[in-house]
Amino acid sequence: MKREIYLETTPLNEAIEQWLRRLESQGFLKTFPGEKVMVPESLGRITAEPVAARLSSPSYHSSAMDGYAVNYQETFGASETSPKKLKLGEQAVYVDTGDPMPDGFNAVIMIEEVNLIKGSSGLASGESPRRQGVKGQEEIKYIEIVEPATPWQNVRVIGEDIVATEIILPENHRIMPVDIGAMLAGGYVDINVRRKPKVVIIPTGTEIVDPGTNLKKGDIIEYNSRVLGSLVSEWGGEAVRFRIVPDNLDELKDAILEAHNAGDMVIINAGASSGSEDFTSKAINETGEIIFHGVSIKPGKPVMAGIVRDKPVLGIPGYPVSAFITFNLFAKPVIYRWQGIEMDPPEILQAVLSRQAASILGQEEFLRVKIGKVEDKFIATPVSRGAGVLMSLVRADGFVRIPAMSEGIGAGSAVNVELLRTKNEIENTIVCIGSHDNALDLLANSLKKKYPRLSLSSAHVGSMGGLMALKKREAHIAGTHLLDEETGEYNVSSIKRLLPDRKIVLVNLVYREQGLLVPKGNPKNVKGFEDLTREDVVFINRQTGAGTRLLTDKHLREFRIKPEDVKGYEREEYTHMGVASAVLTGIADTGLAILASANALGLDFVPVAKERYDLAIPIEFYDTDMIKALLSIIREDNEFRNMVVDLGGYDISDMGKVMYDSGV
Amino acid sequence: MKREIYLETTPLNEAIEQWLRRLESQGFLKTFPGEKVMVPESLGRITAEPVAARLSSPSYHSSAMDGYAVNYQETFGASETSPKKLKLGEQAVYVDTGDPMPDGFNAVIMIEEVNLIKGSSGLASGESPRRQGVKGQEEIKYIEIVEPATPWQNVRVIGEDIVATEIILPENHRIMPVDIGAMLAGGYVDINVRRKPKVVIIPTGTEIVDPGTNLKKGDIIEYNSRVLGSLVSEWGGEAVRFRIVPDNLDELKDAILEAHNAGDMVIINAGASSGSEDFTSKAINETGEIIFHGVSIKPGKPVMAGIVRDKPVLGIPGYPVSAFITFNLFAKPVIYRWQGIEMDPPEILQAVLSRQAASILGQEEFLRVKIGKVEDKFIATPVSRGAGVLMSLVRADGFVRIPAMSEGIGAGSAVNVELLRTKNEIENTIVCIGSHDNALDLLANSLKKKYPRLSLSSAHVGSMGGLMALKKREAHIAGTHLLDEETGEYNVSSIKRLLPDRKIVLVNLVYREQGLLVPKGNPKNVKGFEDLTREDVVFINRQTGAGTRLLTDKHLREFRIKPEDVKGYEREEYTHMGVASAVLTGIADTGLAILASANALGLDFVPVAKERYDLAIPIEFYDTDMIKALLSIIREDNEFRNMVVDLGGYDISDMGKVMYDSGV
Fold first, then answer.
1. Which DSSP helix (H) or strand (E) runs through A78?
2. Which end of chain A is more exposed for a tag (fewer CB within 10 A), N or C?
3. In chain A, positions 273-302, which contact chain B (CB-CB < 8 Å)?
4. Residue A386, Cβ neighbours under 10 Å: how many?
5. Residue B133: which residues within 8 A CB-CB, separation 6 or more?
6. Integer CA distances (angstroms), A98 to A66, A101, A157, A302, B409, in order
């Protein structure tokens, strides 16, 4: 028998509309009043009133050039054939750029366009006064001009830039660097900007602890409040983190009321789902009123919104991805409205989905994707969909929304991606799909260090998956370690078979040691594959298509062991680190992976084989700037090469060497 | 005779390359070392080293659901027809989401999928434990399940999110909100980020004064340092404003050396041009070395760069537009390199130039443009090209670069605009071209206040110019006050003549008073047009095509005055405020303009005529959301309507009324 646990599950658009309409109708969405800040401190703030110039700029007629101020009426008739002399000090006065115009003068002749006449003799001098020094200057009595001046030529008249009373900036305008200059020039020292919305975030939960605490089993480091607080800062508000409140109804109610007094909006995180210790909805209900509880989105379903006295309160779910998404959906529009500004619409990129993504009917899903530009197409690949996997957000380039009325999106479909990064960053990302190796993480880091413009994005789908991605033109390079058991050669026969029409360059990254990982001290005394049939040994496998899975199967065949006799054969991990983690945490007793992963987590290692790990690169990418940069790291960056050696179990003697080239 | 004033004028790309190469070769472009900051304070900072997880997250196996922890091996065989009972406390333990898995348990069954059995009687209970309260819970002895559990189902295993040793963020990565969560989850409390580059900006000039000073003639408010400092902040650095240094070589040299000790880069502003009091190049030369002085760009030509001891020094020109452009070109790349990050390329928009822009051969010009999207085309209109007109930057939407080898760009040419605003802002801008009226400024402000998404951009080219802009499809609306002398009707006959094929709706904005502006007290006793022929009266005119110009000419004809008998008839201003400013500052004694402009600057006013000022709106825009929003302000916003009345000289009795509709 199934039970409805949430109070309701409102469709997303309805929930947002209901929320904003309700706040608006009660007068809680009005723009905030202004507060004075000094103009130089106002960058990025929002004007709370129109800024009308108090002064004109320039505030006096001034010379726009280095030259001589004259009265244009006295220059009539000057020409090349009949130059006109003007007496210095009376008819012409030297002015630098910016100098006020002397009274009675109304034009400036550029210094380059006059001849200086010494004494009364009328001798022409080719030098400007500054090159002659003071002594020479004293001798000059006249300037000679060969063209008449026009009225007010080369003069910056009062108000040329800003006329007093002119509106420099409208209300609700975000202040940019040049605006600061214009306000100062217009006579402002301080300026009225919108007060920053203050958001108080209450972390709740008996199990959560502050970062830096020595963790006991069951402790969870509290970090959501810092993610949400950073979002508040980016949106122009100010976040206040409340102390951690344990799961206790009365304490939570007290906290809500205290937070209510301290800010403009209260966020409770979490306790928004329906666990037996969730007091958030009760606490909101008993201090104010719930507007909705439960929205049909994934992740983020348990979100709730309410009003306590005169302020909005949100119950934000505890899973980090749910928290991020629901906070964006329900807090951001309120914070923007208070400031009198509109949210920028998300940047949308058209992409092709590389893998199908099934979705639950009736829930709008926010699918996180990584994007790569391969040839002319943007390829979006879904990353982990777990609401608890924050790294899926750290690594994601954007979201694809799967509508509530859809059961999913097929591979190859065109999708609109709401970007979390700029298109430029995405276009400068090398997409590496295939087998996982720890050296790839170091490579990504060294690439970014030396070429900050570039990124390396790795997806771990196994060697076969990598070659298939090249075939489908979804990746620039593929990491692969596929042994041809007949020839003993790596990768070449697979490339010939899977990519017969493509020209591929195979560049060695490393030789590496594969072996059985076991806990420190090898408590179950695993000596090799022959022990995998033991009743007390649980194995952890890699996914189909992984080179390491093929290596496992090869060894099982050699030992004539049937997969069904290996306990745990059916449980799959996608990376070496996943296998290592499973062994470390007791999910399994052993699994096949590279030495580097054992070293990373302090496990013991039973060597099984040394294998070659190459990067397969289609010739059309091989000479691009991006791949050239990557290869220069592999071939020449000693810091990178040494770091790989330090991981352990690697032989870099062929690192960067072309092992095979199907194109020549 | 012309003289070369600059030391040299290097082409722009050459100057940038020379500058960066020289700094690089001397080791002055290396990324900065790291400094520790607390993780929650690290938003927007740049990682100075790779961040590898110290802890796994989660750090223990935990339940991913509210439900019952079980051992999956004890659930084998459960089905709808043959449910299985598990004893609470022994075979099944209640867990909330996030609770650690009890030892020996390896799967969680969701609470929605179990039946609770009271006592030993086996009676099914339809209620969840939390709804039964403590008393009910005590009675439950078993759970009943109808499906076997799979290993580790609904369990978040250790490291599901982050595996210890995994690289969370690479070096040279700008920290985003979610990254802060991942670092905290990965065991970090503080983090190594790049030290912020510190830029010391020295304002120089005997004539410049701090904002807030009571201005004397010749004083200039110093604001460039605040604009440049704000840019430094936006680029991730820290700006220090040095005290104002007068034009004195020794003081400037001392200032450079003091600034050199206080920061990573020294900016001298200005004194970079060639005026007789410019000491900047000399001061750099005597404390260090000049790399280049003079670059063939406009504006910004006098920029200079040098090295003093081990640090870059820039001499940035004094005109605000020159300062902004050269600082972007020469300081920004250095500040980015120091932080280990790449500059984002400017966003480029393809547009059509509405007016021709001639340019000087041999200088790369940075033409500021306003952009509007009319129908499907982006129209770029050049704004003031004066290097001293900061408002041209405040109002600009972007730059068009006119190459050094070009003499200009013709009207109708396709141009690439480097955007200063987002494309979205531009798409939400109503383009109003035509006659100027002060009420338009208020309208722009009220529109932004009520609809923060929208902007109104006005270009003032006169009534005829506005109708021509509609004809060329370069504007959404045009402000117009063209009197048909035969019929006495406004605007309709001009629209019929100029736009015979277009359907135009004519909406009244105001009736307004035009008159002769004179200084306070009317010192020359101007009584009307008859006084314009007086020897001691200088007139200021409006440009050809302006409705006010036509009004002037009509009155001159009526008084039988020839234009050549009016002193100043040939000097043109483009706006009412321009005329008012000319009268206020003594450039002219009188000019024809609206009463509002006289009131704004405290001038006296000799009434001449009352006229109708309408907005002409093509029917295809009339029903768009943007124009509907604008009309709602005009028709319904009493705050706006009252503000217009307060300007003086306006009759709003027909404001918003449709005066003519050629489409019906």
1. none
2. C
3. 273-277
4. 17
5. none
6. 8, 9, 11, 64, 31
What pLDDT score was predicted for residue B461? 85
- With a CB cutoff of 8 Å and minimum separation 6, the contacts of A430 are A372, A447, A454, A455, A456, A457, A476, A477, A626, A627, A630
**Most confidently modeled of B119-123, B150-154, B330-334, B646-650?**
B330-334
Q: How far apart are the first and last CA of chain A?
A: 66
- Chain B positions touching A386 (Cβ under 8 A) are 156, 160-161
**E strands along A487-571, which residues?**
504-518, 539-542
In B526-637, where do the E strands start and end?
Answer: 539-542, 572-573, 590-594, 604-618
| ipTM given for this complex | 0.90
The separation between the first and the last C-alpha atoms of chain B, rounded to the nearest angstrom, is 66
DSSP-derived secondary structure letter, A477: B
In this predicted structure, the answer to whether residue A405 has a pLDDT above a threshold of 50 is yes
Q: Of A235, A238, A258, A239, which Cα lies nearest the Cα of A195?
A: A238
Q: 3-state class of A12 per DSSP? A: helix
Q: Read off the pLDDT of residues A521-555 as tens digits, 9 standing for 90 and up.
A: 999 999 999 999 999 999 999 988 888 999 999 99
How far away is chain B from the Cα of A652, in angstroms, using its nearest Cα?
Answer: 21
Classify burial at B77, counting beta carbons within 10 Å of its beta carbon; exposed 0-12, middle 13-18, buried 19 or more. exposed
Assigned token pair, A85: 């002399």
> Cβ A215–B188 below 8 Å, yes or no?
no
- Quickly list H helices, A93-176: 129-139
Contacts of A569 (CB under 8 A, 6+ apart): A539, A541, A563
CA atoms within 13 A on the CB side of B598: 25
Q: A510 and A439 in contact (C-beta within 8 Å)?
A: yes
Is-contact B658 B515, C-beta < 8 A? Answer: no
Token output for A278 = 């969730």
Does the beta-carbon distance from A58 to B220 stay under 8 Å?
yes
Chain B, window 405-444: residues with a beta carbon less than 8 angstroms from a chain A beta carbon: 422, 424, 441-442, 444
Residue B398 DSSP SS3:
strand
The predicted model gives A253-271 an average pLDDT of 94
**C-alpha distances in Å from residue A131, one per residue of A15, A218, B145, B275, B530:** 75, 81, 100, 11, 53
Longest dimension (CA), chain A: 119
Largest Cα–Cα distance in chain B?
118
A457: β partners: A431
For residue range B625-651, what is the model confidence (pLDDT) as tens digits? 999 999 999 999 999 999 999 988 999
Chain-chain contact of A273 with B66 (C-beta, under 8 angstroms): yes
Quote the distance between the C-alpha of residue B406 and its chain's center. Answer: 29
How far apart CA B542 and CA B582 sit, in angstroms, is 11
Predicted pLDDT at B204: 93
Of A228, A341, A449, the CB nearest to B452: A341
Please report the residues numbered 219 through 258 in chain B whose beta carbons come closer than 8 angstroms to any beta carbon of chain A: 219-224, 226-231, 233-234, 241
What is the pLDDT at residue A653? Answer: 96
Angle, CA of B558, B562 and B567, to the nearest 5°:
115
* B14-35 tens-digit pLDDT: 999 999 999 999 999 999 999 9
Return left, alpha or beta for A322; rule: phi > 0 is left, psi -120 to 50 is alpha, else beta.
alpha
Quick one: closest CA in B to A105, which residue? B587
Query: What does each C-alpha distance from A420 to A299, A348, B422 come to in angstroms?
Result: 17, 10, 16
Question: Residue B412 is encoded by which pair of tokens?
Answer: 């109708």
**How far, CA to CA in Å, does A146 sit from each of A149, B272, B638?**
10, 28, 59
SS3 of A303, please?
Answer: coil
